[in-house]
Design brief:
Blueprint: H1 3-16, H2 23-34, E1 53-54, E2 60-64, H3 72-75, H4 83-94, E3 115-119, H5 132-148, E4 154-158, H6 160-172, E5 189-191, E6 203-207, H7 212-217, H8 222-236
Parallel strand pairs: 2-3, 2-4, 4-6
Antiparallel strand pairs: 1-3, 5-6
Helix pairs in contact: 1-5, 4-8, 5-6
């Protein structure tokens, strides 16, 4: 990864965090920051779009849904500060992708290796449900992000929403439509017959979202996510 590419990712981050394209999301993220949860009453919330972060030379891109209202919207780092993030970063650490099993916020010293984390929608949505228009408004940011992550070979999609967003990223990168569309599932793999291109690594891998509902009910367990991360490493090699 060249210094120029790293600088381009930093410039993209500067643009992302200033975005106000979606009035509903802007209003919600700022309302949440004003009406803080009691446990975080003394904290100052980020309350802006949350950029991706990680290793600029990443071969694996983890794609989530959106920041949590009191997680990433508070800490400024996607998948940080909530139960989903606790589960995910513990798994990334076990797999050797993260320097620490815990992520508390920007500036905590955590380093990702060979991996980049981002989200299909950059602002926390009400009820964790972005609208199709909000999803599409965010899409160009991720197209540009993936184009700058030139070594990326695999997009690991956390949940069906991220899987669908990844397929839209493929179209936005100029690939032809697929019929039938590849279906999401835990452990599902899909290699694009048209191959990779700028903004599109070319391989999808599915994983159930590490939501509290999924991890508390056993729909997603630590061995399950460990196996998916191991497979992601194999596919990216």
């Amino acid at each position: 990864m060249s210094a120029a590419s790293g600088a381009a990712l930093a410039r993209l981050e500067d643009e992302v965090v200033c975005c106000r394209r979606c009035p509903r999301l802007v209003a919600w993220r700022e309302q949440v920051a004003h009406e803080r949860r009691a446990a975080f009453a003394s904290e100052r919330y980020w309350a802006r779009p949350v950029p991706g972060f990680g290793d600029p030379a990443a071969r694996i891109v983890v794609l989530g849904l959106a920041p949590a209202a009191h997680g990433g919207n508070r800490t400024g780092r996607v998948f940080t500060g909530d139960r989903s993030g606790d589960f995910l970063f513990a798994a990334l650490h076990r797999a050797g992708f993260a320097s620490s099993p815990v992520s508390r916020g920007m500036g905590d010293g955590l380093v990702l290796r060979e991996l980049w984390i981002t989200a299909a929608v950059r602002c926390a949505p009400p009820a964790n449900r972005p609208t199709p228009a909000e999803r599409d408004a965010c899409l160009p940011w991720t197209v540009r992000e993936l184009a700058l992550l030139s070594r990326a070979r695999v997009v690991l999609c956390l949940g069906a929403f991220a899987w669908d967003a990844a397929l839209r990223l493929r179209l936005a990168a100029g690939a032809p439509p697929m019929r039938p569309r590849p279906r999401f599932g835990h452990g599902a793999e899909w290699r694009d017959p048209d191959g990779a291109r700028p903004g599109w690594p070319g391989v999808l891998l599915g994983c159930f979202h590490p939501s509290q509902q999924n991890t508390f009910t056993g729909k997603l367990t630590a061995p399950m996510i460990d196996a998916v991360l191991a497979r992601a490493r194999e596919l990216a090699a």
